[in-house]
Design goal:
Elements lengths: L21 H9 L6 H19 L12 H24 L10 H10 L1 H4 L19 H10 L9 H11 L14 H11 L5 H11 L4 H12 L5 H9 L6 H12 L6 H13 L7 H6 L3 H13 L11 E2 L2 E2 H4 L6 H10 L13 H6 L12 H12 L20 H6 L2 H11 L3 H11 L8 H10 L5
Antiparallel strand pairs: 1-2
């Protein structure tokens, strides 16, 4: 039997990454442990430009802040009613609304990752004002995004874990637009002193419960993808006691008693509108095309796999090296593999010889593809064979490090305790706040700092 030798190198060897655009460049710059004046100036210029764009967008929040509470509760009611209708449609046999297959769901997790990995960042700059009672609702929101320092509840750690579990943690190939929302959040967080109304407005928009969050959680469960991260946000953003209610409270408690109340609220509204810039969750979902995503992935592999294969295996008269020698031939190569019977579409992928080469411990191409890349290939081969509903159960989440592990046994945590003991009491809060930044709150020292900082808000 003719053997098809390894066609593509491992994902870790792929080096053709998109050149970083302005949003990604700023995003990465603002995620450094220490920021220079140049980074903050760049953030300010970027944020002013975004606010100018946002100001031109329609705004659906009430013109009078006193109406916000009823507005928020009405929106929450409409969301839950729409979700009830969705569930009824599904019970009557309607297909999934968002995700065609598991690869589609993993594509979504990967493409929204730049935003999820800075969850809560827009509130970071308010920590320095922890003694201001009117900011307490926002401070509590930030600490809850950080899981109150408990590793198993820290939102960024949870999302990192989810990405790693499914081989979706390589983000180098994402386009610049996917970093825009995260860059906005980081800019707001680092410039909160100058943009307090905008921070409050952005928080008001971000913390409302959207319909897509409920549907995403439901459909991920069907597709054997752990929905816990999304379920957590469903409960924590509730309109009764959660972040949505705290967001409204923050607006009302920070309206000026002396000063231009109307101007403050106008700026709140513009900050709220920042949520509509960039590519949102439903747009990411709609952008998925399995054929395009598979071919793009294989094209990236091709660029580092040329001339590493034996010439004795020919597909439609051409060696593998010849198929891979030039860009733009991936689709034709896949068609040739189907014609030769190496790939049998719309059947169980186990029936395809090519799939047997890439999947399994004894597979000749074991390790060439990441979990996410294998899912793309699997679902593309399966096509219409794929069951409409997953027959599996959600995978159990790996246990996160306990507070004691992060605290007592880790060198960083021990070093923090020592550093705090050596500091005057009035400087200790500043050190804790430094470690609770978007760049480090998920580290052992950052988690410990969050737990210690909680005492200041009691």
């Amino acid at each position: 039997m003719t053997t098809l030798m390894p066609i593509f190198t491992t994902s870790s060897q792929s080096c053709n990454f998109l050149q970083a655009g302005p949003a990604r460049t700023l995003y990465e710059r603002l995620l450094q442990a220490e920021l220079d004046d140049g980074a903050l100036n760049q953030a300010r210029s970027f944020l002013d430009g975004q606010l100018a764009k946002a100001q031109a967008l329609p705004c659906d929040i009430p013109a009078q802040p006193e109406a916000l509470l009823d507005w928020m509760r009405g929106a929450a009611l409409r969301t839950t009613e729409a979700y009830g209708q969705y569930l009824q449609e599904r019970r009557q046999g309607a297909p999934r609304r968002y995700f065609q297959n598991r690869a589609h769901a993993l594509y979504f997790l990967r493409h929204v990752a730049p935003t999820k990995l800075v969850d809560g960042a827009w509130l970071y700059g308010l920590l320095r004002h922890w003694q201001e009672l009117r900011l307490r609702p926002l401070l509590r929101t930030y600490l809850e995004e950080l899981g109150d320092g408990v590793p198993a509840m820290n939102h960024v750690l949870l999302y990192k874990q989810l990405l790693a579990q499914h081989g979706c943690d390589e983000l180098a190939e994402l386009e610049d637009e996917h970093f825009l929302q995260g860059a906005q959040q980081l800019a707001l967080g680092h410039l909160a002193d100058d943009y307090l109304p905008e921070v409050i407005g952005y928080n008001l928009g971000y913390e409302q419960l959207p319909l897509h969050l409920l549907i995403t959680s439901y459909e991920l469960t069907e597709l054997d993808v752990d929905p816990y991260y999304f379920q957590l946000h469903v409960t924590i953003d509730n309109a009764s006691t959660g972040h949505a209610q705290k967001a409204v409270q923050a607006v009302l408690e920070n309206l000026p008693v002396v000063g231009d109340r109307d101007e403050f609220y106008r700026r709140v509204m513009v900050g709220y509108q920042l949520n509509d810039l960039g590519i949102g969750s439903t747009a990411v979902i709609a952008a998925f095309d399995l054929d395009d995503e598979l071919c793009a992935m294989l094209e990236r592999k091709r660029e580092v796999a040329t001339q590493v294969h034996s010439d004795y295996c020919r597909i439609e008269g051409r060696t593998v090296n010849e198929w891979l020698s030039e860009p733009g031939q991936v689709r034709a190569f896949l068609e040739a593999l189907q014609k030769r019977g190496w790939i049998r579409r719309d059947e169980d992928p186990q029936n395809s010889r090519f799939w047997q080469l890439v999947q399994g411990d004894r597979a000749a191409m074991f390790g060439v593809f990441s979990s996410y890349e294998l899912q793309l290939l699997h679902d593309w081969i399966a096509g219409s064979w794929a069951p409409a509903r997953s027959r599996g159960r959600p995978r159990r989440r790996p246990a996160a490090a306990s507070s004691e592990q992060a605290m007592g046994l880790d060198d960083e945590a021990q070093a923090l305790h020592a550093a705090l003991r050596a500091m005057p009491a009035q400087q200790q809060a500043g050190k804790l706040i430094e470690l609770m930044s978007p760049a480090s709150h998920f580290t052992p020292a950052g988690l410990l700092a969050t737990r210690l900082f909680n005492a200041y808000l009691q």
